[in-house]
Design a protein that fits this description.
By secondary structure, the chain is mainly α. GO terms for molecular function: molybdate ion transmembrane transporter activity. Belongs to the binding-protein-dependent transport system permease family. CysTW subfamily. This is Molybdenum transport system permease. InterPro entries: MetI-like (IPR000515), MetI-like_sf (IPR035906), ModB_ABC (IPR011867), NifC_ABC_porter (IPR006469).
Length: 279
């Protein structure tokens, strides 16, 4: 009786959804439908009997290999320059941090095609920097595999910087100040304190950066071109297929499904790495 009475008198926590007006649940459900139906249509269009053959065709394998290699290289490049930039933004004055954060955000709101044109005007044979690379080193970047990496890094860098910067900024400076008080140098503090603090954002940002690089299309098409085996990544192979040449449309649908699976895996990885406390 006592146990039953205790259960009966236990307080039931209200659902957070109870604070939302019921009328708003209708457009929320519609938004879910808008997100799910195109993905369901893609899965429904897959020819499962030829899926293995489509994914393992030479053209598809080349596009997949190139996407993975260039995506990995672009992500490494973003880590090298993006983590220091994220730390600077996180520890800068509000005014400086605001300007730098706005600058980092530009590739997110800029149409990828415009990014490709900007890179072409910067690094092309007659570009601002490209003309000097061509004249002095004989180095021509446009329409090469290196151009793919540069284009992917340009559009993917903000995902890494913003993720790391947000994590470090929210952690504050008390742990770093405590390490300095105990006599730790700047490099030791960075290695033993700052990096562990940034780890959740670093992992999430790296995964999102790689995913964005893997799906890059517009800047790559304009700056690197669409040459099979050299610059034709998976998104470009899908585009080429649906325009009637190169990879068959069945392979295009199969590669689209593969990108969908990669996106789901990335979502799972990101959800498993939430910013935590320092123990």
């Amino acid at each position: 009786m006592t146990r039953a009475g205790g259960r009966a008198g236990a307080r039931v926590e209200p659902s957070p959804l109870g604070a939302i007006p019921p009328l708003l649940l209708v457009p929320a459900a519609l938004a879910v439908v808008v997100l799910v139906l195109p993905l369901a249509a893609l899965v429904a269009r897959v020819d499962w009997s030829t899926l293995a053959a489509d994914v393992t065709s030479p053209e598809a394998i080349d596009a997949l290999r190139l996407s993975l290699v260039t995506g990995a290289l672009a992500t490494i490049g973003c880590l090298v320059v993006g983590v220091p930039l994220a730390l600077v933004i996180a520890r800068a004055t509000p005014r400086v941090a605001g300007w730098l954060r706005a600058l980092v955000t530009i590739p997110l709101v800029l149409p990828p095609m415009v990014g490709g044109i900007a890179l072409l005007f910067l690094l092309g044979r007659t570009g601002l920097v490209g003309q000097w690379l061509d004249a002095g080193l004989g180095l021509r970047l446009p329409f090469t595999t290196a151009a793919v990496v540069i284009a992917q890094a340009f559009v993917a860098l903000p995902f890494l910087v913003l993720a790391v910067e947000g994590t470090v900024r929210s952690a504050g400076t008390r742990y770093e100040q405590a390490a300095a008080t105990l006599g730790a140098g700047r490099w030791t503090t960075f290695r033993r304190v700052t990096l562990p603090l940034a780890a959740p954002g670093l992992v999430a940002g790296t995964v999102l950066c790689f995913a964005r690089a893997l799906g890059e299309f517009g800047a790559t098409a304009l700056f690197a071109g669409n040459a099979a085996g050299t610059t034709r990544t998976m998104p470009l192979a899908i585009y080429t297929a649906f325009n009637g040449s190169g990879v068959g449309q069945g392979a295009a649908v199969a590669l689209s499904l593969l990108l969908l699976v990669v996106a789901i895996v990335i979502l799972v990885l990101v959800r498993g790495w939430r910013p935590g406390s320092v123990g």
